Amino acid sequence: MTALVEIAPPRFDVSLALAYASDDNITGRPIYRRAACYLHPDAATLLERAVDLAAAQDLKLVIFDGYRPVEAQWALWHQCPDPTFLADPRRGSPHSRGVAVDLSLMDRGTGIPLDMGTGFDDLTPRAFHGSDAPPPAAQRNRMLLLGLMASAGWDHYLNEWWHYQMFAPRRYPLLWDSAARTGLMAA
Question: Residue 54: which H helix or E strand, with range?
Fold first, then answer.
């Protein structure tokens, strides 16, 4: 098995706001026992490209989630078993393969997050790419994020402005926390 890469400064010039390591997520409690973000090495390479493209625009990526152990996917599914927003853990999520990342943008100089029209994990149609419900400035910010990520080689999920994944994610195996050896889940 290929070891996952930890996504953290200084190697990755990103800001970490790991929702599932806090109670600020759809379950209302921490899912991960520690705040850490990992990706498959192939995805980490694409993320490095996205970091560079964002920096050239005086922007910085804000990471909400990366690799999500299968156990964590089950915890989310039990809270919200809606395939519009969450991959059924029996089928597997690109997150549970280490090839998906949830993220946003912030102004590099001020550290102020760009308005995307909804928060992370807003499980409503307002979160869809192309939704005309958010104000025009938020729609432009979403398009900016989409352009940066697509230029770096990422695919997107139509129902979540924050979700990006590698193309053909199923070629990567599903990883339980014990196999990935990340220690994200309770022992």
Answer: helix 41-56
